[in-house]
Amino acid sequence: MTEQSVALVTGAASGIGAAIALAFAESGTRMILGDIDLERAMATAAEIGGAATALCLDVTQPEDWSDAIDRVRTDAGRLDALVNSAGLLSLGTVEECSLEEWRRIQSVNVEGTFLGCQAMIPLLADSGGGVITNICSVSGVVGGHNLAAYNASKGAVRMLTKSVALHCARSHNGVRCNTVMPTFVRTPMLDDIVPATEQHKLERQIPMGRLVEAEEVAALVLFLSGDEARMITGADYTIDGGATA
Predict the structure, then answer these.
(1) What is the pLDDT of residue 189?
(2) Per-residue pLDDT at 192 exceeds 90
(3) Closest by alpha carbon to 22, among 211, 239, 216, 238?
């Protein structure tokens, strides 16, 4: 990424999204931070400084993506990277999960990613090509007895990414698309599901013996968005301390 590059990150108010936004900004990239929680997104933008702006973005709403297109064109005039990081985690077996909860998880994790790719591919192509990184999960390849909705959503994101990558390659528009698939990441969202005092149980499931840090996910996203990765598309990158090995 160059100093003139522009990136849009969804779910940028906290956790993985915020870490990715900060990593991009440190590399000299101009940032647009999208999140349904505008106040916290603005706080992240303020932490970055003058090279960042925030916008209210509900990734499940097509009209919000239309507004995001206008905002990118007005504020930056180009787009070089999109990171679909907004997501929800829900626990529940196939018998426990309500249809309402199922639809809520698919709406954010799958439809939000679909709408983001659909909306931003033309802008990325207009900039001479760019990179989409979809934040997935090892739950897209490894099942969990109590992750019915989440497993399904992340498996869908993984395969959607491959379809997007192949479409863009055949279109010769210069846009690449990959997934990053972490295991348990030390974030506020994880704290909401598993108390910090119990997270040592998760660490025991990871051969390297610790949780992933959000900054480590961000570093991988930054690599995939750079020129060194210009022949990488349609790929899955696990960052899991050996958990899927």
Answers:
(1) 84
(2) no
(3) 216
Per-residue b or e along 202-213, where b marks 16 or more CB atoms closer than 10 Å to that residue's CB = beeebeeeebbb
E strands, the chain, where?
Answer: 6-10, 30-35, 52-56, 81-84, 131-135, 176-182, 236-239
Percent over 90 (pLDDT), the chain: 89
**Residues forming a β-bridge with 147:** 92
The total of structural domains in the chain comes to 1
Query: What is the C-alpha separation between 148 and 163, in angstroms, rounded?
Result: 23
Residue 77 lies in a domain: yes
What is the model's pTM? 0.94
The domain of 226 spans 6-239
Report the SS3 class of residue 112.
helix
- Which residues lie below 8 Å from residue 225, measured CB to CB, with a gap of 6+? 1, 7, 24, 80, 81, 83, 131, 133
197 by Cβ neighbours in 10 Å (0-12 / 13-18 / 19+) ranks as: exposed
Which CATH number goes with the domain that contains 60? 3.40.50.720
Name which of 243, 244, 216 is nearest 16 in CA terms.
Answer: 216
Is residue 130 domain-resident? yes
Nearest to 171 by CA among 180, 183, 163, 179: 163
Please indicate, yes or no, if residue 66 is contained in any of the structural domains.
yes
Q: Where in the sequence numbering do the catalytic residues fall?
A: 150
Would 219 be classed as within a structural domain?
A: yes
pLDDT of residue 191: 83
pLDDT of residue 235: 98
- Quick check: helix, strand or coil at residue 135? strand
Per-residue pLDDT band at 201 (split at 50, 70, 90): confident
